[in-house]
Amino acid sequence: MIKILRIGKAAYGTASEKQGQHATRARKNATNPACLRHFLPLHSPSLPTRTEIPTMLKKALLAALFAAPALNVWAETHLIDVRSPEEYAEAHADGAINIPVEDVAAKISAVTADKDADIYVYCRSGRRAEAARETLASLGYKKVTNLGTLADAQAHVAKAQTDKAEADSKAVQ
């Protein structure tokens, strides 16, 4: 890493390494970018900064922003895996968030405060998902569905993605 020795007139020859600064040699040929004429600090406010996003990047970002809701089947619904974090790490359905069954009552408000939101829960066998569904129903959530097992949830997600893709293709035509 080259540290700043000084700003202003070019230094000719090798600068001494004082106070941990690396030696840098400045040369006379100002037209050659490899030849340094001035030492500028990296943190200098006078260095040019590029705040404008290049046009191609703007287009890519806008395309990603507009495509994101179409890619997320669960944009208006919530898929919750009520298994342990270890089980979730091994495998989970696309778009699912992990809230262990014992934490559902405490953490559901971080997911959605809308009591009319569509919420789907699943676990390994369906028992913990049913307990989570009952807990959410007792908290006033009206549209809670127990999908059962992980395999059932993955099949449900695949069907939802297929249905969404078909609906989107019909909308384009």
UniProtKB/TrEMBL annotation:
<feature type="domain" description="Rhodanese">
    <location>
        <begin position="73"/>
        <end position="159"/>
    </location>
</feature>
<dbReference type="InterPro" id="IPR036873">
    <property type="entry name" value="Rhodanese-like_dom_sf"/>
</dbReference>
<dbReference type="Pfam" id="PF00581">
    <property type="entry name" value="Rhodanese"/>
</dbReference>
<protein>
    <submittedName>
        <fullName>Putative phage shock operon rhodanese PspE</fullName>
    </submittedName>
</protein>
<dbReference type="InterPro" id="IPR050229">
    <property type="entry name" value="GlpE_sulfurtransferase"/>
</dbReference>
<dbReference type="InterPro" id="IPR001763">
    <property type="entry name" value="Rhodanese-like_dom"/>
</dbReference>
